[in-house]
Specification:
Elements (H helix, E strand, L loop, with lengths): L3 H11 L3 E3 L5 E2 L5 E2 L1 E3 L8 H18 L5 E5 L4 H11 L3 E4 L12 E2 L7 E9 L3 H12 L3 E10 L3 H9 L4 E6 H10 L5 H12 L6
Parallel strand pairs: 5-6, 5-8, 8-9, 9-10
Antiparallel strand pairs: 1-4, 2-3, 6-7
Helix pairs in contact: 1-6, 2-3, 6-7
Length: 209
């Protein structure tokens, strides 16, 4: 494979973490119809895949954020991958819940951290960016200095791009929708006549049928 994005996309297609069905779209929880289903939790079941993803995250963090002090994972999909990254870097790990516990200490952020610490957030998948940025906001509200977020895959929606810009949070992803469909075409995973439909969905997912 020529690039990290292509290599990761290849892994995701091979293990069926990504499924493409242009003619029989999936229905997301939001109600959107989608020709793609992505479940990056499956990467954890494949040692070669999870190790490659970990290694790429670690290399990028060392390059972009050498001052990082804590790794944070977004619950639940990015907890395990975040732990692997933190272990490799020899750093503390924390994770951010989607909502605070309704018992005990009612924590939203689990683990030991201090206000002012520099944090890199690990995410498994970015769609619109809403839930991912909620985790960033929670960390900032707790006094953490969020350096940026890294994710395995993004659909590349303009809404997500805008949301991350508005939140002043840098997003770096290992692979993305464009790299994936180009690879899918090259290896014959999808037919050429499906590519335009797949591209149309990314531009206007809320109206896709």
């Amino acid at each position: 494979m020529n690039t990290i994005a292509e290599k990761v996309a290849s892994y995701l297609l091979d293990i069926k973490a990504i499924k493409l069905e242009p003619n029989q779209p999936f229905t997301w929880a939001s109600g959107w119809k989608s020709p793609i289903y992505c479940d990056n939790r499956k990467t954890l079941s494949y040692p070669e895949v999870r190790s490659y993803i970990k290694e790429q995250f670690v290399a990028l963090i060392r390059e972009k954020y050498p001052q990082v002090e804590v790794i944070a994972g977004v619950a639940t999909g990015a907890i395990a991958q975040g732990v692997l990254v933190a272990q490799e870097l020899g750093l503390p790990f924390i994770y951010v819940r989607s909502s605070a516990k309704n018992h005990g200490l009612e924590n939203l952020i689990e683990g030991e951290y201090r206000a002012g610490q520099k944090v890199v957030v690990i995410e498994d998948l970015v769609s619109t960016g809403g839930s991912s940025l909620q985790a960033v906001e929670a960390l900032r509200n707790a006094g953490c200095d969020v350096l940026g977020m890294m994710a395995i895959f993004t659909y590349g929606f303009q809404k997500a791009v805008d949301n991350f810009q508005q939140a002043h949070c840098e997003l770096t992803t290992l692979s993305d929708y464009n790299a994936m469909i180009e690879l899918a075409l090259k290896i014959g995973y999808v037919k050429p006549e499906h590519i335009e439909k797949l591209r149309e969905w990314r531009l206007s997912p809320e109206t896709y049928k």
